[in-house]
Design goal:
Elements lengths: L16 E5 L2 E4 L4 E4 L2 H4 L8 H11 L12 H13 L4 E5 L2 H17 L7 E5 L8 H5 L4 H4 L9 E4 L4 H7 L4 E6 L2 E2 L5 E2 L2 H14 L2 E5 L23 E4 L10 E5 L20 H14 L2 H22 L6 E7 L2 E6 L4 H11 L1 E2 L1 E3 L3 E4 L7 H17 L7
Parallel strand pairs: 3-15, 5-6, 5-7, 7-10, 10-11
Antiparallel strand pairs: 1-2, 2-3, 4-12, 8-9, 11-12, 13-14, 14-17, 16-17
């Protein structure tokens, strides 16, 4: 048999973590890595947060799973916290970001179709990433994600990110809403313009459309506020969240206003595992830390310090680096060469974990609990990696 027991859909590297200590990972062979990838913006509290570990242990000893046919005091309590912290009136819990986006799409369609309309089309934006299910790859314009899975699901129209006029022109009689990331993560830490997001909100109000925000990566403190939409002076109708909300435990959620959720009645949607007590306990522990203005202010301050040091660093290697962009601890280092080789070089030769993104960007998404010592260590490792890196094909 030539296929591996784990289906070979990931090009896995030689780093094999078996233990985590705060902001570091330790591999099977004993190597130690500074983790500024955080499981791709998931491990918001690092790898050994006592509050998170304790909450999971206590809940695992009490009740891990129960059917959603029964009442959920754990889910009700967490949902109420999220409602109190955000624009939302109601929450559906999922197990992942893709599931949260799927629920958001269904919620937008149900909003219209429950009232007798046949609107179903969602306008999305180039270079977006919304997940790996059939619906969420159909919502993306990226052909590399479509290959091997055609035909795509109908009901999505793509326009250029940050182009409000193109978005307006794309509205048609079947349009149900817009689906947009305030900050495109996989797309290269591309930040939505304030006028663009505010303009989408206005278009939705004028045409009775749903504004759906995908904050799977940018949410839960990553961008320096609890959710990134708070920085734009708008509120969405529907929002998908995941990644950091479980601190490493699989969890996502679809948040919506009462009006937006008018079609999500009994039987309209479901999830066997969504909202299980163990996931709820993990998220409660995460919110105990992150849903605090002093903590979020510290995230913003740490992000500013890290970006400032990166901007000073760029001039040392003008042949490699172009610019820095991002919000909070959601940072992109744009390179003048393809970044995957450099990401591998930092990992394999200097014990530094980052992750590549679109537009030749190195994504820097450390745990939100880093301190200045981790920033110093990161800059030391980055500097050493840049000094010793020889891009492929460059003499």
């Amino acid at each position: 048999m030539s296929i591996t027991p784990l289906m070979p859909v990931y090009p896995r590297c030689d780093v094999r973590p078996v233990r985590g200590e705060h902001c570091h990972l330790i591999s099977e062979d004993g190597r130690r890595f500074l983790d500024f990838a955080s499981g791709i913006a998931v491990n918001a509290l690092g790898h050994s947060h006592e509050g998170l570990i304790g909450a999971i242990q206590r809940q695992a000893a009490t009740l891990m799973h129960v059917s959603n046919l029964y009442g959920s005091p754990q889910g009700e309590h967490l949902a109420k916290r999220l409602v109190d912290l955000t624009f939302a009136d109601t929450v559906f819990f999922t197990n992942s970001g893709a599931e949260a986006v799927e629920c958001a799409i269904k919620t937008a369609r149900a909003y219209h179709q429950s009232a007798g309309s046949d609107r179903y089309e969602i306008i999305t934006f180039n270079n977006a990433f919304h997940g790996r299910t059939l619906a969420t790859i159909s919502a993306s314009s990226q052909e590399k994600m479509h290959k091997g899975f055609l035909p795509l699901l109908p009901g999505f129209r793509y326009v250029e990110f940050n182009d409000l006029e193109a978005a307006k022109a794309a509205i048609g009689p079947q349009t149900a809403g817009f689906l947009v990331e305030p900050i495109q993560g996989e797309g290269g830490i591309r930040i939505a313009d304030e006028a663009f997001l505010q303009g989408l909100r206005t278009l939705c109000d004028e045409h009775d459309l749903m504004l759906i925000l995908d904050e799977v990566q940018s949410g839960v403190g990553r961008s320096g506020t609890f959710y990134a939409y708070e920085q734009y002076g708008i509120t969405p109708d529907i929002l998908a969240t995941a990644k950091g909300i479980g601190g490493g435990f699989p969890l996502g959620a679809c948040l919506a206003t009462e009006n937006a959720a008018r079609g999500m009645v009994a039987g309209a949607h479901g999830s066997t595992y969504g909202g299980n007590p163990l996931a709820m306990a993990a998220a409660e522990a995460v919110l105990d830390v992150i849903a605090d203005e002093a903590f979020l202010a510290a995230v913003r301050a740490k992000g500013e310090r890290l970006r400032g040091r990166l901007e000073q660093f760029l001039g040392n290697y003008p042949e490699l680096f172009e610019l820095v962009r991002g919000r909070g601890l959601f940072i992109g280092l744009k390179m003048k060469v393809e970044p995957r080789g450099f990401v591998a070089h930092m990992r394999d030769n200097h014990g530094l974990l980052t992750v590549s993104a679109g537009e030749n960007v190195v994504r820097i998404v450390p745990p939100l609990v880093i301190d200045d010592s981790h920033i110093d260590e990161f800059m030391d490792k980055l500097s050493a990696a840049a000094a010793s890196y020889q891009p492929e094909g460059v003499a």
